[in-house]
Every structure is written in structure tokens, then in C-alpha cells.
């Protein structure tokens, strides 16, 4: 049974999500709060496994609540619900300490899938093809929001669309060589050789290598004449 704290000021949404989660087999024990201030009080008393919170709320918003929780609690999984999931909005939440986002509107089954994926990630389980959230050594890679977050320093990097796609291909095939032509086909729509696209790919690989440079468990190598390999220990 997963202990969940739902912080949301929309009563109709609270009813729908709470009842939906409690009906799921294996299920959830759900406590609710209507703002961040109440959320803090219940978090201290209830000790939930997961917190699901709206961002914009009266009295205290989700960002303020999460910042206070993260002063003493770095373990509880926190997921924001919001209609604002552009990179600039998402970055604020990740900097506060949230683990992931789910875009409104959503249903209980969708929230359940996100939560289960977060728990698997936290426990070190393989989640390929089950989520758009990947672990790369010390980094958490959120494909949906084009965000790379270092879990040690909490540093947030927002990737470009093409950087995001290339990194996704490499992590999906981690510890295996990915042919240059395969990346060019998926990211540039090019079949066969194209000098300028190939050189552009090299520039993107160099940028990604720099972004992952501080991660001692990760190595992005160029296999001359073949392609690239992302080695993750």
C-alpha cells in the first residue's frame, strides 16, 4: 500500500483522483490537503511515500511547500500537477526539488503509472519502455520536458529538441553502439550520407559529452567510422 499525500485546492479533482487511486488493486492510502501550508502539516504527521501537488494554490503554493520539505527531506517522491509544463515552468519545480511533472488534465490510472515509474527509478529498476524518465549515472533525464537534472547538485539543464532526441536514442541503447546513420535518420530525416548534417551531429555529441562530463559513471564515446556509444556503469 502506497501512502500518498494529495495537495490540491480543486475539490472535484481531489474527489476524482482520491477515489480513483483507492480503487486501484494493491492501491493507495490517500490523505489530502487544500494548500501548501496544510500540506506541510500533514506531511510531518503522515510521513507519505509520495506527494502529488498542484503548483498554484492559495495561502502557500506548491513551490514554497516543496522548498520547505526539501530542507529536511530529500527522499520523499514529489510529483507536480500543472497545465504549465513548458521548460521554463518545469525548471522552477525541479530547482525546488520536485521529482517529476504530470500535465493536467489527467486520470488516476495515468497518475498511478507515473508514480510506479518514479518508484522503480528510485529503487534502481530498469524502466525502459515504461516511462520517459531515465537514470543516467548521477543524472535524471526527463525526455518529456527536455530536462537533465544532476541528483547530487540538483543542477538543471534544459535541452534543445535535437539534444533531447539524440540523448534519448543513446540512453535507450546504452552500452551498445548506435550507428551514425541511425541517429541522422531519426533526428534529421536523412537517409544516406550528408556532410553538413553529419558535422552538425558531431557538434551535438560534443555538447552532450560536456553536459555529462561531471558524471563519473557515464562515458559518451565516438566509435570512429561506426557511430557512438553511451557507457553507463
Blueprint (SSEs and pairs):
Elements: E1 2-7, H1 11-23, E2 28-33, H2 36-46, E3 50-54, H3 62-70, E4 77-82, H4 87-96, E5 100-103, H5 108-122, E6 133-136, E7 139-142, E8 147-150, E9 156-158, H6 161-172, E10 177-179, H7 180-188, H8 195-211, E11 218-223, E12 227-232
Parallel strand pairs: 1-2, 1-3, 3-4, 4-5
Antiparallel strand pairs: 6-7, 7-8, 8-9, 10-12, 11-12
Can you describe this structure?
With 233 residues, the chain is of the alpha/beta class. It has 2 domains: 2-126, Response regulator (Rossmann fold); 162-232, Orthogonal Bundle (Arc Repressor Mutant, subunit A), CATH 1.10.10. It contains 8 helices and 12 strands. A 5-stranded parallel sheet has the order 2-1-3-4-5, with helices on both faces. A 4-stranded antiparallel sheet has the order 6-7-8-9, covered by helices on one side. A hairpin with a 5-residue loop joins strand 8 and strand 9 (156-158). Helix 1 (11-23) packs across helix 5 (108-122). The longest helix is centred in the last third of the chain and has 17 residues, at 195-211. The protein is elongated.
